Amino acid sequence: MDVSQQLANPSSGLGTFAAGRHAAETPAGAGFGVPADQTAVPAAALAVAQGAQAIAANISRVIAGKQKAIELTVTIFLAHGHILIEDVPGVGKTMLAKALAASVGASVKRIQFTPDLLPSDVTGSPIFNQATRQFEFEPGPVFANIVIADEINRASPRTQSALLECMEEGQVTVDGVTYGLPSPFHVVATQNPIDMEGTHALLEAQRDRFMARIAMGYPDEDAEHAMVRARDLAEPITALRPVASLDAVARMIEAGRRTYVADAVSRYAVALTRATRLSPALILGASPRAAVHLLTAAKALAAVQGRGYVIPDDIQVLAEPVLAHRIMPAAPARGTEAIIQAGAIIRDCMATVPVPIAAER
């Protein structure tokens, strides 16, 4: 198995949205204390599942053979989380980000991160208006619903820090004045783990603000051939049209937040996160914010699968994408080996935490 395939083949692979919806038709959550009216398919969750399927199908018109990566991206997007897409060159990282942006009716800005990029190039800065003889704030590209931060690790730590307030608080402060960002606000960042020349590792605080890290991997032969043929005469992404409005996305995000979580399941998410802090293989485990992100993402996953409740499987599926980029191994590797190493450590931590079992009724 090559490096890119290893990156894109974690044990926590998602199934199809449709398969999850069929599973929701049985009261599997009843043993976790799920209210009876939530064990059937709630209307709100069904609407989320249908919307998620439409977005994923639209992205699939451009990104062939990468259903799991697409579904994970859509899930994190509907969890209102920021996404880090990390993989080798040429596998469609930026294309996935652009296809997601093109599939929803939202404002989109792209920032190409380079060593000479300044914080003001991201956030905006005061500009002198000759007509009014006053300085007026000129918003930067971060003022959009979806911000594509391309090759984010090529900018200096100072410039990377310009995103910290944006990603955590949804606002920008310039010269003592705070400006709110559009809502919803998502950062979809890409980086290449192979080429380390002229790059700066993401700050720990910034890595922790990304809800999940996603890998693409190489497509199989048939998918790659289909991609080559499709782009022979035109670029397919130019034909993409939004399949979900901004209001619809906001409703789907809110429906995901309202997904029911039993106490045993939320404690399981916390236990998995705390297990990383006890691992002898790590000098830095996952933060409390990671536990919040893990449970939030699990609620969104349940909703996109048409369920009104979270089950332990949802936590297990998302543990590696949500936790692996936040930890610091005691004997760190470099490049793609670091990603593979982190994933293996998270799986080892998962093996030490008992999975809650639903009580029979």
Summarize the model shown.
The chain is 44% helix and 15% strand. Helix 4 crosses helix 5, helix 12 crosses helix 14 and helix 15 packs antiparallel against helix 16. It has 361 residues and is an alpha/beta fold.
> Quick one: how many beta strands?
13
Query: If classified by CATH, what would the architecture be?
Result: 3-Layer(aba) Sandwich
The low-pLDDT segments are 1-7, 19-27
Largest sheet: 5 strands, parallel
Radius of gyration: 21 Å
Q: Can you tell me about this structure?
A:
This protein has 361 residues and is α/β, with parallel strands linked by helices. It has a single domain (3-351), classed as 3-Layer(aba) Sandwich (Rossmann fold), CATH 3.40.50.300. Helices cover 44% and strands 15% of the residues. The protein has helices at 3-7, 17-23, 36-39, 43-60, 67-78, 93-103, 119-123, 157-160, 164-169, 204-207, 221-230, 246-257, 263-278, 288-304, 312-323, 335-351, and strands at 82-86, 104-105, 108-112, 124-129, 134-139, 146-150, 171-174, 177-180, 186-191, 210-214, 244-245, 282-284, 328-329. It has a five-stranded parallel beta sheet with strand order 3-6-9-1-10. Strands 2-11 form a two-stranded parallel ribbon. Strands 4-5 form a two-stranded antiparallel sheet. Strand 7 and strand 8 (177-180) form a beta hairpin. The longest helix is centred in the N-terminal third of the chain and has 18 residues, at 43-60. It is globular, with a radius of gyration of 21 Å. The N and C termini lie far apart (44 Å). The relative contact order is 0.19.
